[in-house]
Input
Amino acid sequence: MAQVTLDSVRKIYPNGVEAVTPASFQIKDGEFVVLVGPSGCGKSTLLRMIAGLEDITEGALSIGDNVVNTLDPADRDIAMVFQNYALYPHMTVRKNIAYGLKNRKTPKDVIAQKVDEAAKMLNLTEYLDRKPAQLSGGQRQRVAMGRAIVRDPALFLFDEPLSNLDAKLRNQMRIEIKALQRRLGVTSIYVTHDQVEAMTMADRIIVLNGGRIEQIGTPSDIYHNPASTFVASFMGAPPMNLVAAEMQDGILSFAGLELPLASSMRGPVTLGLRPEDLIIDSHGPLAMEVELIEELGAHRLLHGQVNGQRLTVHLAKEEQVALGPLHLSCRVQNLCLFHPETGARMDGGFAFNLAQDRMEERV
Amino acid sequence: MKRAGFASRWLPILLLVPQLSIILVFFYWPAAYAVKSSFYLQDPFGFGQTFVGLENYSSLADSAEYLRVTNFTVVFTVLVTFFSLALALLLAVKADKVIRGAKSYRTLLMWVYAVAPPVAGYMGLILFNQRWGPLTELFGMFGWEFNLRADYFDTAFAMVVVSVWKQVPVNFIFFLSGLQSIPKSVREAALIDNRSASGRFWDVTFPLLAPTGFFLLIINITYALFDTFGVIDTLVKGEPANNPMTLVYKVYIDGFRGNDLGGSSAQSVVLMLLVLALTVFQFRMVEKRIHYT
Output
């Protein structure tokens, strides 16, 4: 177990493409960190650099107290779980799990004991003598986990381990992996493009976009306090509503909504509203034309337009609603303001300078 | 499930006729003729034939010369198969690691494949020429007086070298594509599990190449037994008497030089049975042992 430190780690491919701009962060001992972002955002490259499968162009990577930039993957004390499992097809499950230990000169009886323990933990005991081809996707994923666990590494690396599984199995494995990591307390870095996986599994999330770190924070931080429109629209399903609004003389205005803010900002801004912060209210200031109702059982989503801009509203299942015109109000304490061009957060957290007694108010 | 079919029963047969007639005329007819004539003693001038039963076969079994040729063929096949596979594997593993200029490197390695066996034989003749062959001179510098066509061992040596050289590119292509079909992530997993490169090769890469390797093994045995004819013919032409030759070359020598069509036919039937056995063995093995996904 160990902490991981990246100091301005950068990746430039021989063709000149900068896959990862200098990234610095620290992962605490035992922490579960998720790297999330769309395809091509550099999250896998970053993980592969930590694993040693990809050269680090610049910067220093430390695992524990040692800089490991030039160490071979086998010498970094890491274990990795791959997207397509990467099991050795010609070896039995037992040999697959034991292979890494065997090469580290572990005594035979210790190997046998560790393999049995891991197999028990992962419900693989009866499959130990099968070949990977005779296993289901979920079982193969467990074998890949077992191969990582028996090594007792300082660091687990997961490269989209669940994306080859079907939705139901994915939910189940997500919980299993998280529980296992809690139990073993091994520092883990997990790469995914699935924001649900990121939100549910992470102690801390690192959101990447175009090779750059957009934001680092706890899932709740990232969700409630996105640092940019990219993070706001990437995290959360459905994503945050982003609409064009106007600041003038200390008043933020969007459609019928007018909100006094103690701020000297002026001109256009992007206003971020989470769908669940919009409330049906016949006296509300926002007039919405509902065009589509998505029935999701536990809740419903209304899609429509306010002043010509698309908006999604999250609705509890008890509330009655029909297509057509509707009035909304919103919980002002959760609003976010972004720069209309750069998309960067402008209000710096909850810096709405509303009077304390108005914070709970709906406007 | 509904099966797609032809309206007329004769159309599919008609479509198969060209292929079937080629097989019939060029494979089964000569094979059947060889089996038949192996039971006869042919008049060398083609005036007649006498049925002799299994006499051609029994005289083969008693022939010391046939035994000698068989022994040489076995040694020759083992050497050619082993070295052409091993060298090709080595080259493929190295070529697989090359990143810059990989394409031209691979193309150059494959070029030899386009050389016809007799041409390869002639190139061997030039390289091993007694008076001015560069390889002969090279061996001379080490005190080895190389004597192609005169010395049994030296001739065999040249045969093996030329045959191996000719076959390496084919094996190389197959091994290289076999290597490239091993999933990248499996190799990376091995990179994390094992720090020794040779350990990774023997534990992971080599077993995953086994299907390719086994297929090539059969191909190479067949090559060494039969397709080296051109090489051997060129290297020993005119004076086969004291020189090494393989079973296939002996079939030709006895049949067309010695005019012993009956004995030659018996030899070719023996070879046919050998090929049949190899084929059966191959299919059995492919079905049983070597499978993975």
